[in-house]
Design goal:
homodimer; 4-stranded antiparallel sheet; alpha/beta; Aspartate Aminotransferase, domain 2; Aspartate Aminotransferase, domain 1
Chain lengths: 404, 404
């Protein structure tokens, strides 16, 4: 008689954003006239840039003719895209990353869930707290996290690095040395980040204790300050300790297009074993490439027109971020983030519980945000709003919140 | 100090089709004038059907406007696609499958590699031999297969069900009861299949011994005989023991488009635990939906025009299959498959080793096929040719083989 993966039984509740969606749906059915504004899930609202649309139409046409039709893509991505990534995301920043160290995928969510597969189940992970739920949940599913404590809302075998206003949201080196360290910078959900010099210390630490850093750079395009690294490979020694994940979702609006990539440097080795070769094997066995049309869309992000257009989109979202942040401040809230990231992280008023504030905001302002506690125990008493709505909705949401 | 997943170290050599690609590349560099015809990897060559192209252009245009732009897709697939699948692939065949039992994905390769995640590492798998390499390799990576024996080319903890000409390529119930049974029918690589009455016996067997069947129906569109099931859910009792995987790659030419789906019936339970809920959780945590544009392409496969167009394409490939099969017979080969599938499976002449025959064919006819032993030990002495080339190339390849 077959048995299931019992680790799934340990997972409490459902995936955060599914829970929010259900709550909003229930409220909406009860209040059909409510004009709900969602600043909750980090989904973009601006349409794809013209250069990207043009590239996709062209690629679709290529698929219509036998001479230009493309079947299976190269396992790890088309050269045209890998080369564009290297040139723009690495060479331009002085990072020495080769095209065959880039693994193109269907998105950073898949990669951030799958990357743990190439590591031992004995490894202990460290995560910032609060944190993007996929890092922990994917490790729970694999059996790496021990047991869940409902009271503390923590896993017995996970090292939590609290990021709270008391430490300026900067994770501190844990007391026990971890094996795998997840860092998302600029951070989701807090919207904060650390300086390049601080990131260098993390690279030094990882190399010293023999840890691997899984570096999620999904929000890199939102960095506005010059002393913040766009890639972990800007730090010396990162190629021997870090894997970098990158998304096209937030810089180019690809949440419904699905494209990402992972960098596994050839110098990254565990003893004699190349992690690059392991990830290539994993990708080659359990994945069959991102769609040709989508990879052409990704290439267009790096064209001159594409770069200008997506930069403007990011600028629009950052205008929302500034507006939301200032508006909340005016309304008396304590707010963080929003400078190098599209997320605004606020302290709930009167230490309200995060989910209570979620309900309060939904019911009284018809505004949807994300409860901080959904991202980890240290997120309790915080709340996330995103700048990915339209300008009009951002204005309207802030007006409503001010009136509360 | 972090450690790697040691199971990867157990995997011998590289993924079959990567090895072939490297061999062909090396030959091609040595013989730049050779006009190589590939009937090797099962990649399609006909361009996408007009109805699909039209749907994709329309979807691309929707992504260009804020009013019609789509961000994150529903985790498990858009309703328009899930409903079209249910209506055409299940209702039309008298199978009672609900839309929310359909999980849309980026392809059957990903699903067939990922599905094992929701099962216990203690489960023992059974596979047909020869078999699509992903089933075994993904279980090796997870640690379910024991150790590899280089001499026998088998894994110590895998139950092999030989499918050879002596048993008409019909797998027999294994002596020891397996927990998870992988069945691909019509079969890749042998191109053969079993009757619906025989499949019913497998469903009965699985329900009796408490095994789950992972049923890969990727080649269903090529079935030409009426007593062969298109879906395992045509068999009574399948909903309590079977998961079905389905690809758009072969019926609609989506190898470079990437779309598939998995059916996990709600009745499929291990004790009290719903496998449907587990797969939903896995999908929701580690996957973010197939691209909107690609899901619209999938929907178009089920439009009236789309259905007629892809049927014609399948018909073209089956003409190639008949041509290759007859041609090989004329040339004195013993051949199988090609009636309900686009694969022709041949006995190598004089019991030549599969890889020797690969080299022989590449060097002397400049034709690329796939060595049977690459699919498992019982594939030794066999060789696979696909009907997915163009008609001209299929004719030319057979002419060359006849002249050997």
């Amino acid at each position: 008689m077959y048995q299931i993966n019992e680790n799934y039984q340990k997972l409490p509740g459902s995936y955060l954003f599914s829970t929010i969606a259900k709550k909003v749906k229930a409220f909406s059915e009860k209040n059909p006239d409510a004009n709900i504004i969602s600043l909750g899930i980090g989904d973009v609202t601006q349409p794809l840039a013209p250069a990207i649309i043009e590239a996709m139409h062209k690629a679709v046409d290529e698929m219509a003719n036998a001479e230009t039709f493309r079947g299976y893509a190269p396992d790890l991505g088309y050269d045209f895209l890998r080369n564009a990534i290297v040139k723009n995301d690495y060479e331009a920043r002085g990072c020495d990353i080769a095209a065959d160290e880039i693994f193109v995928s269907d998105g950073a969510k898949s990669d951030s869930g799958n990357i743990q597969e190439i590591f031992s189940l004995e490894n202990r992970i460290a995560v910032c707290d609060p944190v993007y739920p996929v890092y922990v949940d994917s490790n729970v599913m694999a059996g790496r996290c021990g047991d869940y404590n409902l009271d503390t809302q923590t896993w017995s075998n996970v090292i939590y690095m609290p990021c709270v206003k008391e430490n300026d949201f900067v994770p501190e080196f844990p007391k026990e040395a971890p094996d795998m360290i997840y860092l998302c910078l600029p951070n989701n959900p807090t919207g904060t980040t650390i300086k390049k010099s601080q990131l260098q210390e993390w690279v030094n630490y990882a190399n010293k204790v023999g840890a691997v850093i899984i570096y999620d750079a999904a929000y890199e395009a939102y960095i506005s300050e010059s002393d913040v690294a766009h890639s972990i490979y800007e730090c010396e020694g990162a190629k021997t300790c870090a894997i970098e994940l990158k998304s096209f979702s937030k810089n180019a609006g690809f949440t419904g297009v699905r494209l990402g990539y992972t960098v596994v440097p050839k110098e990254l080795k565990c003893g004699d074993v190349s992690l690059h070769d392991m990830w290539a094997r994993r990708h080659g066995t359990k994945f069959n490439g991102a769609p040709y049309i989508i990879q052409r869309a990704g290439e267009a992000v790096y064209s001159d027109a594409g770069k200008a257009q997506v930069k403007e989109q990011v600028g629009n979202y950052m205008k929302n971020a500034a507006l939301i942040k200032e508006g909340l401040k005016d309304a008396g809230y304590e707010v963080f983030g929003g400078v190098n990231s599209p997320y605004i992280w606020l302290k709930t008023p009167q230490n309200m519980k995060s989910w209570d504030f979620f309900d309060y905001l939904l019911e009284n302002a018809n505004v949807v945000g994300t409860p901080g506690s959904g991202f980890g125990p240290s997120g309790e008493g915080y709340f996330r709003l995103t700048a990915f709505g339209s300008y009009e909705n951002s204005v309207a949401a802030i007006e409503r919140i001010k009136k509360l």
